[in-house]
Design brief:
This protein is an all-beta fold. The protein has no helices and 17 strands. The C terminus is likely disordered.
Length: about 160
Amino acid sequence: VQLVIHVYILIYILFVNSDSSGDIVMTQTPESLAISPGETVTISCKASSSLTSGSYHLLAWYQQKSGQAPKLLIYDASTRASGIPDRFSGSGSGTDYTFTISRVEADDAGDYYCQHYETPRTVIQNNTKTCLCSSGQCHRCFLNVHFISATATLDTRTEVW
């Protein structure tokens, strides 16, 4: 049994009020990775400018399984959301962030996203995906467009290209 991860470049377009500070581009690596159950998955996101504000790191990680809404896993770069097992962890600061799944299980199959957030900005996350597939049971990888508010509430639409 082998898990396959496909990682795509991710781009965030940030909208602010009249004092727009421009776009922040996030690059997610590696492009592809083969993982067996029990092994460790590591995904990196690099921002074109710092996501650290004071003692806060404005970076979150989400998991989305086929047919389900995205689920918040990590916020503030390293804080696990309620009920998330310690197999999932995040780290990083400034422009460099890492997400790790230890002791990978078949149930971890899904899409993984990183997100930059900062009040009052709204993030449009476009063409951003890490596909984690298990035992050949991998749903098709679509282009997902997520509109994510700074409070981590999600409205999602999926476009198939």
